[in-house]
Amino acid sequence: MTDPSIPLPPSTPAAPREEGPASASVSSPSGDLLPGQPYAAPLTPLDVQHREFATGLRGYRKGDVRAYLAEVAQALEAGLRERAQLNQRLLEAQRQIQEYKDAEDELRRTVVAAERIGHELKEQARQEAALTLQDAQNRAALLSETARTREQEALSRHEARLRELEATFSVRRAQLEALYQTQEHELENRARERSGALEREFSARYADLSGRLSAAHAEYAQFMSQYRAVSQAFAQAANTHLLPDAAELPHRQIAEGKPQAPSGPAPLSPEVAAVHIEEQRFS
Q1: Distances (CA, A) of 173 to 161, 186, 188
Q2: Domain ranges of the chain
Q3: CA–CA distance, 116 with 109 (Å, rounded to integer)
Q4: What phi and psi, each to the nearest 5 degrees, are found at residue 249?
Q5: What is the pTM assigned to this prediction?
Q6: Residue 27: strand pairing partners
Q7: What DSSP character marks residue 260?
Q8: Would you give per-residue pLDDT tens digits along the chain (283 residues)?
Q9: Which of 125, 176, 208, 215 has a CA that sits 20 to 30 A from residue 257's CA?
């Protein structure tokens, strides 16, 4: 650093810089103009480093001046770089603000369009709901009328079928009654015929048995007559051979008609036994 007590040498007047109108903007290192600043040629670090000053008798040391100018050039370069960065950030911020404004406008237009579309959709949904309700009511009325018509048709078919079944049942009942009466007459006729046949068979068998019984009685009477004759003949033969009177023989008692002590059941002929068996069957 230079001593502030040492006066600076008189500087060589710098070349005048051209300035534009007061309302012009200063151009940034990137070439953009800053609003609200007068236009002037930018001072670069190279200008500071190569600045020449006039020499005097008691002037500053050139080394110190050059070192100071180098520091000023570095500071100026850093300031210009920072200024360029700030300008770049400012431009980026302005661009983002413009994008935000555009996005806000787009969002506002989108919201307005969404509200308009929402109202349109609500109105369309209301109209569609009204049309759907009207269509449903019409379909319900049509279905109700169709159901009533089908119910009437089904009831008519059912009544017709019922009358047909009643007629068929009446005819079938009459046929069954006629068949029952016919079969009943046939059974009665068969029963009468069977009863007559049994009566005739019984009469024939009864007559046969009666005849056989009469024949058996006649045979029995003939047998008894023959037996009595044999007994009388035997009695006569006994009297001829002088049998004792005290010892009366059975054949003599029979011939004289006296009762005889039973000595056991008399044997029956096969005809008499058959007659007794038939009498037991019909008793």
Answers
A1: 18, 19, 22
A2: 211-282
A3: 10
A4: -85, 160
A5: 0.28
A6: 33
A7: -
A8: 444 433 444 443 343 343 333 333 334 444 444 444 444 556 677 777 677 766 666 677 778 888 888 888 888 888 889 999 999 999 999 999 999 889 888 898 999 999 999 899 999 999 999 999 999 999 999 999 999 999 999 999 999 999 999 999 999 999 999 999 999 889 989 898 888 889 888 888 888 888 889 888 888 888 888 888 888 888 888 777 654 444 444 555 544 555 454 444 555 555 556 556 655 655 5
A9: 215
Dist CA 260 CA 252 (whole Å)? 10
Dihedral sign, CA of 31, 37, 41, 42? negative
Chain Cα centroid distance, residue 66: 103
State the Cα–Cα distance between residues 53 and 48, nearest whole angstrom. Answer: 11
51, burial (CB in 10 Å: exposed 0-12, middle 13-18, buried 19+)? middle
Torsion of CA 245, 250, 252, 257, to 10 degrees: 120
> What letters, b where the CB count within 10 A reaches 16 and e where it falls short, cover 100-125?
eeeeeeeeeeeeeeeeeeeeeeeeee
**Res 257: pLDDT:** 52
Strands (E), the chain: 26-27, 33-34
Buried-state track 143-157, b at ≥16 Cβ within 10 A, e below 16: eeeeeeeeeeeeeee
Tokens 């661009």 belong to residue:
95
The 8-class DSSP code of residue 58 comes to T
